[in-house]
Amino acid sequence: MKINQVEELTGITKKNIRFYEEQKLISPQRNPANGYREYSMEDVKQLSRIKLFRKLGIPIESIRKMESGELQLDDCLFKKVHELKADIQSAQMMQKVCQEMLDQTTGFDKIDTDLYLAKIDQLEKGGTQFMDIEQHDKRPSIVAPVFFAGITILAVAAFILLLFYLNSLEPAPFGVIGFFVIAGLAVCVGVIIACRERIKEIKGGELDEARNY
Fold it and tell me: What is the tens place of the pLDDT at every residue in 9-29?
């Protein structure tokens, strides 16, 4: 069956199905006549299992290990139950601290921060998981997209220069040279647009995070 049918049967988007294929969680056969993927009912069942476990927050690596037999279902679920219990306990303790602040504090500028931070520190030492602000409250880096965009543009520029150099040694038809130059410029424009959108996405993410507080 085609991916549209699988999407309808499982409720999993084509994008996610492709992702699970990339992760080697499913391996649909290809039709030798046209090269298209042909999904089987076993693929559909496997995708349903993946959907179930991902809904429960089971990591993809754990699903892969269960599929290969490296990890038993009982062990995976036991670990998840333990994690959920710990999360519930942490949430209850955070609720307790918030309720205490609600009952005892009359305003933002009157909060006894030293008192409550000391309580949180003590609770963390006892195993309660509060938000790790060092991991959450930091600016996403735009260095990587800018770096890779720059490398790509430099590579295209080098290719075009090499093309002109070779053309000076042995002239080629103008149409061929023009095609490669235009194609290279189109790649550069596409990379710049993609980089700009990624930077906007990162900065937009910062704004979205700020709106949560």
Answer: 999 999 999 999 989 899 999
Q: How far apart are CA 2 and CA 25, in angstroms?
A: 18
CA dist 157 and 149 (Å) reads 12
Domain layout of the chain by residue ranges: 3-68, 73-131, 143-211
Please give the CATH topology (third level) of the domain spanning 3-68: Multidrug-efflux Transporter Regulator; Chain: A; Domain 2 (1.10.1660)
In whole angstroms, what is the distance from residue 91 CA to residue 80 CA? 16
Rounded Cα–Cα distance for residues 53 and 27 (Å):
18
H-helix segments, 105-142: 113-125, 133-136
Burial of 43 (0-12, 13-18, 19+ CB in 10 A): buried
Burial of 6 (0-12, 13-18, 19+ CB in 10 A): buried
Buried b (16+ CB within 10 A) or exposed e, 131-164: eeeeeeeeeeeeeebeeebeebbeebeeebeebe
Could you tell me which of 25, 23, 21, 60 has the C-alpha nearest to residue 37? 21
User: Hey, how many other C-beta atoms are within 10 angstroms of the C-beta on 100?
Assistant: 13
Give the model confidence (pLDDT) of 98-157 as tens digits. 998 888 877 888 888 888 889 889 888 888 888 777 665 556 667 778 888 889 989 989
For residue 211, pLDDT beyond 50? no
